[in-house]
Specification:
alpha+beta, 483 residues, five-stranded mixed beta sheet, 14 helices, elongated
């Protein structure tokens, strides 16, 4: 087992900044109540907050208290507290981490050295938690001193071995406590030695592939994915983020495969909901082209497909969102646009020639569109060299604004259309396109990039990244042997 110095990790009790804090009024699951008495020498007449972590970026306040002149305070309530890792905020940007298991305990410490001066009564979880931190902090200082003094490597090795032995004994002693799980979750998976000798470049490649594969496969080994207390710690969110950012290829198929594998391991309802939500929300808003296919998969399989986990409003909203996204996924032929051009003739997506087509959705009143349109038109020579056609369409149905915008930004060299169609019989204007629900145009401008068959190969590409995207796409096609 590798040495890990908890005293210097993110979840340590100590001082730090408080993230986004929210108050909750959720009903408790029991009426056991809580009574936590504290004393922090060095504070006086200040307000304190008791909050549990909800992932690594939110805390949920469960109670407040006010310290007297000697630093004494009490958190008390009739509702039970959900178990997990909590923080006690006692000054601006300063807090202590404590574990809530038993909800009737007391403690005393000070602001000078809150960890080493901490004393608990009636809380085996926190006694074990702080004793570990005290011991690891002391041993770490000793080790760093030896390293800085460049002492005999054997001395340093002995200290490291002692640390490992202490950690192993501590885990055995406290194996029934949540704190044991909590500390273990901070350990990285230990990779067994590579059995083959490394003699050449091929062996080196195999070695690195072995390390990566083992690390990825065992990444969650030290986290109990079916213990919902981990939702109320920073660990689960950080592990999920690291896994999907660093170990999963940002391609829809890879994301979907790894998400499905991970979720087969999670049976606990609350943890399952949390993980589904975190993965889904990540890829709904990702800037990486094409990963919204992973979001659509998550929505279909784990929201619509597991209705017992969600309320009916959430399921309905997810179903509606998927309905919009699925026809717009990478590789799909873009829904046909039926427009009228500046001469009054019909203009459709299918009628646009070229190896590529850029569909540029804008609003003449949009300030961002007024900034981006000149950048688009400045690339006219590049577009010509790559046989790229541009179809610009105003989502606002105002002919005067539309024609003025075309003239002001010198857009006459590209295809321009508007969703206004005169009815031959009545002479009234008709509109054919629901831009929001058909093309997901919730802001402007938005660019779709199509191949010669009008299949979507890119979407929501920034104006100044079009050339980079085309280069990336063509290089990728070459790698795949596609002409």
């Amino acid at each position: 087992m590798k040495v890990f110095f908890l005293a210097f990790s993110i979840m340590l009790s100590g001082f730090g900044s408080i993230a986004q804090v929210k108050k909750t009024n959720n009903p408790a699951t029991s009426q056991a109540g809580f009574l936590i008495k504290g004393k922090i020498n060095g504070i006086s007449h200040v307000e304190l907050y008791l909050a549990h972590y909800f992932g690594s970026t939110q805390q949920v306040i469960k109670d407040t208290a006010r310290a007297d002149g000697q630093g004494n305070f009490v958190f008390q309530g009739k509702e039970d507290l959900p178990k997990g890792l909590y923080l006690i905020s006692f000054s601006k940007n300063k807090y202590l981490d404590v574990i809530i298991g038993n909800t009737n305990f007391s403690f005393e410490t000070d602001t000078l050295d809150p960890i080493n001066h901490m004393k608990f009564q009636n809380s085996s979880e926190n006694e074990a938690f702080f004793s570990f931190q005290k011991e690891m902090g002391k041993r770490y200082v000793d080790l760093r001193k030896l390293e800085l003094e460049r002492k005999d490597p054997s001395q340093i090795s002995n200290i490291r071995n002692e640390i490992t032995q202490y950690q192993q004994a501590w885990f055995v002693k406290n194996k029934q406590l949540f704190v044991s799980k909590l500390v273990r979750a901070a350990f990285e998976p230990e990779i067994p030695p590579f059995k083959k000798k490394i003699l050449n470049a091929k062996d080196s490649t195999a070695f690195y592939q072995y390390q990566f594969s083992y690390y990825k496969k065992h990444f969650f080994d030290n986290v109990d994915l079916n213990d919902d207390r981990f939702i109320r710690t920073p660990f689960l969110q950080k592990k999920l983020e690291k896994y999907f950012e660093d170990l999963v290829a940002q391609q829809p198929d890879s994301i979907i495969k790894d998400a499905d594998i991970l979720l087969t391991k999670i049976k606990n309802r609350d943890v399952r909901r949390y993980v589904i939500y975190k993965i889904s929300s990540t890829y709904e808003t990702s800037n990486i082209v094409g990963t919204d296919a992973a979001f659509a998969h998550m929505g279909e399989k784990y929201y619509v497909g597991e209705p017992a986990l969600w309320d009916t409003t959430t399921i309905r909203q997810m179903r509606d969102r998927i309905k919009v996204l699925k026809p717009l996924l990478i590789g799909k032929r873009i829904p046909e646009l039926f427009l009228t051009d500046t001469s009054g003739k019909r203009l459709t997506t299918a009628s646009i020639p070229g190896e590529y087509t850029l569909v540029y959705f804008y609003d003449p009143d949009c300030s961002h569109c007024k900034e981006e349109t000149p950048k688009l038109m400045a690339q006219a020579n590049y577009f010509k060299s790559k046989k790229i056609s541009v179809l610009a369409t105003s989502i606002a149905r105002n002919k005067e604004q539309w024609t003025s915008f075309i003239k002001e930004y010198k857009m006459e060299s590209i295809y321009n259309g508007i969703d206004i169609h005169p009815n031959a019989k009545t002479g009234k204007e008709e509109y054919y396109t629901d831009f929001l629900h058909t093309f997901d145009i919730y802001s402007t401008p938005i660019i779709y990039v199509l191949d010669k068959n009008k299949r979507i190969i890119g979407k929501k590409i920034p104006t100044d990244k079009i050339q980079d995207f085309i280069t990336f796409y063509e290089n990728r096609q070459k790698e795949l042997g596609i002409k």
